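Weekly puzzle thread! Below is a chain. First person to post its structure in token form gets bragging rights.
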Amino acid sequence: MSLQDLNKVAVQSTGQTVKDLLELNALWSILQVDDNPYISESWLPPAILNPEYIPERQQGLKIGLTVVFLFGLLTTGSLVGFKVITTQKHRAAKTLFLEDWLLVLALFSGYAVLIVSFVSVYKYQAGWHIWDVHIESAEETFKISIQISLDFGI
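Winning reply:
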């Protein structure tokens, strides 16, 4: 079987083709990661070695992240609201002071982190083994990472 024939056949358990795996290899080889399995010449993804391989769908991660996400939203929102309301009772001027605005800003930045984590797990396969990630997810993740680096000079 030639490489072109292999590119037409999807690995049944992951839906990836050999072309996808080679493109993932090219993407991940850019990174300076110590435990990158794509660097090893003899390494093959488990889905190639075992046709019965079923990738872990990260249901535990999704459930745990959802619980933490909802708990974090409710807890932090309640605490910030409680702090702002109780301190307003004892103030002569009923306006928010600098510490209140900073607290609200910190709350919304924390919400942003929670939302990005939530979306990355559900949309971009964050938390998956790199050999189970679909090429589209990896490409989108790289695009977002590069955009953030360019925008914030990281």
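Puzzle host: Confirmed. Bonus trivia for everyone else. Residues 59-89 form the longest helix (31 residues).
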